[in-house]
Design brief:
single chain, about 70 residues, mainly alpha, 2 helices, extended
């Protein structure tokens, strides 16, 4: 028996977001740099969480301004 796929917009049970290898490497490289400069280990996950916690509203506003307005 196959599970029926969730309709678009409904939340599944997963709590993992796929960001792709290139974006993960960017986060990881920056986390390593921050760890070196700050003399405290920061993981890519901690950096991603920090960005979400502190810059999500700016991202929302920027994205909304970039979406073409319907006439």
């Amino acid at each position: 028996m196959h599970a029926k796929p969730h309709p678009v917009g409904n939340r599944g049970k997963t709590r993992v977001i796929h960001i792709g290898q290139e974006r993960f490497e960017t986060l990881s490289d920056l986390a390593i740099n921050i760890s070196y400069e700050g003399k405290r280990q920061i993981t890519a996950s901690q950096l991603a969480q920090y960005v979400l916690d502190n810059f999500l509203e700016q991202a929302r506003l920027k994205l909304l301004s970039e979406i073409p307005q319907l006439s």
